[in-house]
Amino acid sequence: MSRVASFPGAKPANSDSSRKSQMSDFQECEVQNRRDQVDNKQSPVNLAVNVGGIRMVNPVTTGSGTFGFGPEYAPYLDLRQLGAITVKGITLEPRLGNPVPRIVETPAGMLNAIGLQNPGVEAFIRDHLPYLREVGVPVIVNIAGNTVEDYAAVAERLDQAPGVAGLEVNISCPNVKKGGLQFGTDPVMAAEVIGAVRASTKLPVIAKLSPNVTNIVAMAESVAQAGANALSLINTLLGMAIDVQARRPVLANVVGGLSGPAIKPVAVRMVWQVAQAVDLPIIGMGGITTAEDALEFILAGATAVAVGTANFINPRATLEVVAGLAAYCEANGIKDINELVGWAWKMSC
Ligand SMILES: Cc1cc2nc3c(=O)[nH]c(=O)nc-3n(C[C@H](O)[C@H](O)[C@H](O)COP(=O)(O)O)c2cc1C
Q: How far is the CA of 202 from the centre of ligand 1 (A)?
């Protein structure tokens, strides 16, 4: 996980370390935030993208569950420079999440079994949405549920809340009415959820696919038919770790979701396959740490990207990716980043 960004425009997290010793962390961040604004305004490249009706000034958003509700990261970067902010998964009722330990570091990644800890939709709208609205970038609300009706109710409530740009539907949740089988592992159940959310809101609906399936294209086609405006992929891969001293699983939940650089090749492969089969914009994610990683997803067919686990090791990773994308386009004579979407297969046909 200690990969140092080396791509054009992507500054390593520790590049200013000598100066840092003379400044407080807060001053350092203020200076960096002002620098972000200047850097981004100078780019002659069009970085703006449209994800199923969500207009983003650049293609970079945050991975749900890795960026809180935004203010947690405000000391480290100017949130207004993000293409969008995707918040932690929201359910109808508040949830405390799973017992600890619920996180474990793995080679080139991490396992988490947070269990969708969140304050519930009412508290989200009351306590977090006003702040996000002030930031002024599109707010994508990730939603989850135990039943189709749960998802529909959260979507309907958020539809009436000013300041929400779109809903990202996390279908990697157990369907309690079907013995706990995940919605996202069955094309029929996945379509039911997306259809119900679609019928409950006028907001753009992004279906977030689970990679824990044998045929990702079948899942994408199913949710597309059910009315999704865009797709997000991928969510975490099911995994586990065992403590050899204790001789039992590390996570209290036994299994968890693997994320980080370890999953990037799987994610790029899935974006590549789905982009060629389904005519919907894709938000690609899974192990993006640098602009070069993001470009792999864009060249595979993603219109936008989300930075997730990387935020935990470098809270400025999102904006470094934005800067690196602009630098790549400039260096390669690309005037509009949309030209690069799917290039790796479009240009080889
Ligand atoms: C701690 C943690 C919490 C997460 N919470 C959510 C969530 O609430 N909803 C969701 O759809 N995905 C959630 N994810 C999945 C991420 O949004 C993302 O899809 C996945 O981690 C792959 O991207 P990454 O490798 O860049 O982290 C979570 C991931 C992590 C690491």
A: 25
